[in-house]
């Protein structure tokens, strides 16, 4: 399933959020530092809300497409499961979000200068990399949970997804106090990943069954290899 159409929805939400922030900045007092910082937080919140709105719009679009594929298939079922669509949608949102998060950082890494030369944190790039990784995973998990909540009309789950997205975005404003931002974000990532795993039908029993099957397959491969290799004195 191609990722580009799904990433396009995230790009449109980013464009709209950027336009709202741009207009707000130019209509306000640009000399007021506190006001500009508040508008930056406002822009981040609007961006999150627009991303979730476009995620919902994409859910509705996929729902219509899924019904159309089911009607033209021979067995009356869509060739792609809805959970696969949710996973790919979340992954595409995460990848394009990660690209835009890290592209300016990579541009600054070219130089000139050395990180930390003016007293800034020398861990700027490594923490940015970890933060980008967390955002990619979070968008993937949010996609799975969001689509399942829309399908089953669990509005409290939708509220938690939006709230966790807003909280994660807000925690980034604590940088460069990285301990206060990265640790909570990774806790949110682990919790959301577990939630998405259960939402997708995963369980501890399935993990044990998967591991036992893998061990059986490994033992069969070793036995097959032993039978194929001739014994030498």
Automatic annotation (TrEMBL):
Keywords per UniProt: Membrane, Notch signaling pathway, Transmembrane, Transmembrane helix
Pfam families in the cross-refs: Aph-1 (PF06105)
Transmembrane segments: 7-23, 35-54, 85-103, 123-147, 154-174, 180-198
InterPro entries assigned to the protein according to its UniProt record, in alphabetical order: Aph-1
Membrane topology of this protein: Multi-pass membrane protein
GO BP term (any one): protein processing
Cellular location(s): Membrane
GO cellular component, one term: gamma-secretase complex
Quaternary structure annotation from Swiss-Prot or TrEMBL: Component of the gamma-secretase complex.
PANTHER family in alphabetical order: GAMMA-SECRETASE SUBUNIT APH-1 (PTHR12889)
Family: Belongs to the APH-1 family.
Summary of the function given for this chain in its UniProt record: Potential subunit of the gamma-secretase complex, an endoprotease complex that catalyzes the intramembrane cleavage of integral proteins such as Notch receptors.
UniProt-recorded name of the protein: Gamma-secretase subunit APH-1
Species assigned in the record: Chunga burmeisteri
């Amino acid at each position: 399933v191609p990722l580009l159409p799904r990433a396009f929805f995230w790009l449109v939400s980013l464009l709209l959020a950027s336009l709202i922030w741009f207009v707000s900045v130019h209509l306000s007092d640009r000399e007021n530092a506190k006001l500009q910082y508040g508008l930056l937080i406002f822009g981040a919140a609007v961006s999150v809300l627009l991303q979730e709105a476009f995620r919902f719009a994409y859910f509705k679009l996929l729902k219509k497409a899924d019904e159309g594929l089911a009607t033209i298939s021979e067995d009356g079922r869509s060739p792609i499961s809805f959970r696969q669509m949710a996973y790919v949608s979340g992954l595409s949102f995460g990848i394009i979000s990660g690209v835009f998060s890290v592209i300016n950082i990579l541009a600054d890494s070219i130089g000139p200068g050395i990180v930390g030369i003016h007293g800034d944190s020398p861990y700027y790039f490594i923490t940015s990399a970890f933060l980008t990784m967390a955002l990619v995973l979070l968008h993937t998990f949010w996609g799975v949970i969001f689509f399942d909540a829309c399908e089953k009309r669990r509005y409290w789950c939708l509220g938690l997804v939006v709230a966790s997205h807003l909280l994660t975005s807000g925690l980034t404003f604590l940088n460069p106090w990285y301990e206060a931002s990265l640790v909570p974000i990774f806790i949110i990532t682990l919790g959301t990943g577990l939630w998405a795993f259960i939402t997708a039908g995963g369980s501890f029993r399935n993990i044990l069954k998967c591991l036992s099957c893998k061990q059986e397959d490994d033992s069969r491969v070793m036995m097959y290899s032993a039978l194929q290799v001739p014994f030498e004195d």
